[in-house]
Amino acid sequence: MLITVTRSGGFAGYEKLRALNTSGRADAAELEDLAQRAVAPLADGYHYRITVDDEVLDLQDSCLSDAQRALIRTVLDEGA
């Protein structure tokens, strides 16, 4: 299984891209299980798409920051 992670943002705005092939690794089964659980949608969780002008962000309920929660709550409660 090939697992790829991209991290971007932060203070300097750098992007880091790394890939890991689990073939032949002693911990392959554990990594593959983690990968499957990481990409599986939450059965009872909400999914959100926030669009601000031309920027689009897709999020799962379990990954929201406090600012994102506050924004979502306000827009859903007060938006048209």
Strand order of the largest sheet: 1-2
Q: C-alpha Rg, in Å?
A: 17 Å
Helix count?
2
Shape, principal axes of CA atoms: extended
Structural class, please? Answer: alpha+beta
Largest sheet: 2 strands, antiparallel
Low-confidence blocks of residues: none
Number of strands: 4
Which range does the strand content fall in? Answer: 25-35%
* Helical percentage: 25-40%
Distance between the termini: 45 Å
How many domains is the backbone divided into?
2
Average of the residue pLDDT scores: 89
- N-to-C series of helices and strands: EEHEEH
Give structural attributes.
alpha+beta, two-stranded antiparallel sheet, two-stranded antiparallel ribbon
Structure description:
The relative contact order is 0.12. The protein has 80 residues and is of the alpha+beta class. It contains two helices and four strands; from the N terminus they run ββαββα. The chain has two domains: 1-40, no CATH class; 44-80, no CATH class. The protein has helices at 28-39, 66-78, and strands at 2-7, 16-21, 47-52, 55-60. The model has no long low-confidence stretch (mean pLDDT 89).
